[in-house]
Amino acid sequence: MRRRTILAGLALLVAAPARAADHRAFERAKLTLAQAAEAAERAIGAGARAVEVEFEGRGDRPGRFEVKVAAAEALFEVKINAETGEVMEREEKRLERLLRRMTHRELMVAQTTLAQAVAAAEREAGGRAIGAELERDDGRVLWDIELIRDGRSQAVKVNAADGTVLRRS
Fold it and tell me: What gap in Å lies between CA 10 and CA 2, rounded to an integer?
């Protein structure tokens, strides 16, 4: 047990500087998370819906948003340059990877878009969104939004059915 605790502590020490570098790179980003999600949806086409976005800092180079987009029978991962909004890469993935966490019906029930959920979370808690993910929690479909404010991270849950901000942590 003690060994696991020590290993977990070491993992946190290694991850903390990397996350701080992400935060610094994120502060330089010209694009918002919502804009990156919308750019990825446009890149895939009609009916595409962003279901997860994560910012990745890249040292002195421009950061990028990695956006997972569900469309018809496929899941795409689209990488968006955080400074220019350009599509850097687009790759088709197996939709089953997403459907292990979420059914197709649950995806379609999510009336609140990622951009709307991010706007609600930012309005409620302040800060800027650095990550967002559609998830199932106690039978509900929620957006889990990670915000950065004053260099600190906080999570906000938004009901995907109606856009209501449910809780902050």
Answer: 12
pLDDT digits (tens, 9 = 90+) for 32-66: 999 999 999 999 998 899 999 999 986 677 799 99
Number of domain units in the chain: 1
> What is the tens place of the pLDDT at every residue in 107-162?
766 789 999 999 999 999 989 999 999 888 888 889 999 999 888 889 999 999 99
**Domain range holding 72?**
2-168
CATH number at residue 69: 3.10.450.40
Q: How many CB atoms are located within 10 Å of the residue 122 CB? A: 19
149 within 8 A of 129, measured Cβ to Cβ: no
The per-residue b/e assignment along 44-62, b for 16 or more CB within 10 angstroms, e otherwise, is beeebbbbbbbbebeeeeb
Q: Going along the chain, which residue ranges are E strands?
A: 49-58, 61-71, 74-81, 87-93, 128-137, 140-149, 152-159, 165-168
Alpha carbon distance 108, 105 (integer Å): 5
The rounded radius of gyration (Å) of the Cα atoms in the chain is 16
pTM of the model: 0.77
What are 43's two structure tokens? 């890149």
